[in-house]
């Protein structure tokens, strides 16, 4: 079974996660998928296969060489995004020759380079698309397929000498909970890689520092005909507060390393209103400054309208660069592995988060590597077949090159 065959099979599993259930895994389909993967890993001959009650699946490929080598970890997630249905995915392979790809003629849905100019980069290649009614699931079943296909290859090719490899598949990454119950000590690796990036060549070891803010406004409602001097409209206070934040620090005006305040939700009445924000910045100092701005504005509003507003701030994760950069050999190995696969590395910051960020701060340095897909989380998601194959090849190169680290860099021991 090729890596393509595996991917096409895996996307038939409905593993969409949910923020509403409060369970881990958040949906039963993730366990169904994990149990199917257990059987595949057993057939391959992997060892130490464990699937715990929270749906964290781990397994071992034993070393087949003498001498010391770092233990490498490879991680992907089981779930797909709750942003769009992942049920009854109908993947289709097309040879892209330019122009629009009609995904669904009946509903007039087309994947067009006018909307997604990156499509032109894959002219002449086979790409996997949806039928326009679901997402595809390359995020992250492309990563799952590449890891398992690499394990199969290494079991079938013992002449490739390698150290011990650990693999893990996690639930609920798409709702920010993939690392919640990840047992780093049990995983037992010197460092790892999440196989969860986008286009071919992506290599990421910087991500946003992230926090959430919930700002609640209290008002006073009386009959509007007799409200003069009495009514205090919480919704208007919320609107006023939102207007105080800098317009140019919204997501739609930022790129690269630029951080932002993102209003993700609002609801309100005269009596009470709430604003929900996410705060993001790659720079830790600027991140802390953004949180301080919110606190200052809350104080300003309470000075104008005493007791009107309160804020709840919660940090979510931090920039993994703080942990990974001092162990740069982890990134250098991935860079070298991509180049050996004929892939040009694209090193850039993640304008988002990754389980690897949290795992890095939990003691497992963990950059992120491309899985090959584009336009994640929606009907226009697609995956070039060559990118999927190069993901698998990069994984194999990492595993084969890793033992050389003992002769050129002993920092994996620390």
Automatic annotation (TrEMBL):
<keyword id="KW-0963">Cytoplasm</keyword>
<dbReference type="InterPro" id="IPR001261">
    <property type="entry name" value="ArgE/DapE_CS"/>
</dbReference>
<feature type="domain" description="Peptidase M20 dimerisation">
    <location>
        <begin position="205"/>
        <end position="306"/>
    </location>
</feature>
<dbReference type="Pfam" id="PF07687">
    <property type="entry name" value="M20_dimer"/>
</dbReference>
<feature type="binding site">
    <location>
        <position position="139"/>
    </location>
    <ligand>
        <name>Zn(2+) 1</name>
    </ligand>
</feature>
<dbReference type="Pfam" id="PF01546">
    <property type="entry name" value="Peptidase_M20"/>
</dbReference>
<feature type="active site" description="Proton acceptor">
    <location>
        <position position="173"/>
    </location>
</feature>
<feature type="binding site">
    <location>
        <position position="377"/>
    </location>
    <ligand>
        <name>Zn(2+) 2</name>
    </ligand>
</feature>
<dbReference type="GO" id="GO:0005829">
    <property type="term" value="C:cytosol"/>
</dbReference>
<protein>
    <recommendedName>
        <fullName>Peptidase T</fullName>
        <ecNumber>3.4.11.4</ecNumber>
    </recommendedName>
</protein>
<comment type="function">
    <text>Cleaves the N-terminal amino acid of tripeptides.</text>
</comment>
<dbReference type="GO" id="GO:0008237">
    <property type="term" value="F:metallopeptidase activity"/>
</dbReference>
<keyword id="KW-0479">Metal-binding</keyword>
<feature type="active site">
    <location>
        <position position="79"/>
    </location>
</feature>
<keyword id="KW-0862">Zinc</keyword>
<dbReference type="InterPro" id="IPR010161">
    <property type="entry name" value="Peptidase_M20B"/>
</dbReference>
<dbReference type="InterPro" id="IPR011650">
    <property type="entry name" value="Peptidase_M20_dimer"/>
</dbReference>
<dbReference type="GO" id="GO:0043171">
    <property type="term" value="P:peptide catabolic process"/>
</dbReference>
<keyword id="KW-0031">Aminopeptidase</keyword>
<keyword id="KW-0482">Metalloprotease</keyword>
<dbReference type="GO" id="GO:0006508">
    <property type="term" value="P:proteolysis"/>
</dbReference>
<feature type="binding site">
    <location>
        <position position="139"/>
    </location>
    <ligand>
        <name>Zn(2+) 2</name>
    </ligand>
</feature>
<dbReference type="GO" id="GO:0008270">
    <property type="term" value="F:zinc ion binding"/>
</dbReference>
<keyword id="KW-0645">Protease</keyword>
<feature type="binding site">
    <location>
        <position position="77"/>
    </location>
    <ligand>
        <name>Zn(2+) 1</name>
    </ligand>
</feature>
<comment type="similarity">
    <text>Belongs to the peptidase M20B family.</text>
</comment>
<dbReference type="GO" id="GO:0045148">
    <property type="term" value="F:tripeptide aminopeptidase activity"/>
</dbReference>
<dbReference type="InterPro" id="IPR036264">
    <property type="entry name" value="Bact_exopeptidase_dim_dom"/>
</dbReference>
<dbReference type="InterPro" id="IPR002933">
    <property type="entry name" value="Peptidase_M20"/>
</dbReference>
<keyword id="KW-0378">Hydrolase</keyword>
<feature type="binding site">
    <location>
        <position position="196"/>
    </location>
    <ligand>
        <name>Zn(2+) 1</name>
    </ligand>
</feature>
<feature type="binding site">
    <location>
        <position position="174"/>
    </location>
    <ligand>
        <name>Zn(2+) 2</name>
    </ligand>
</feature>
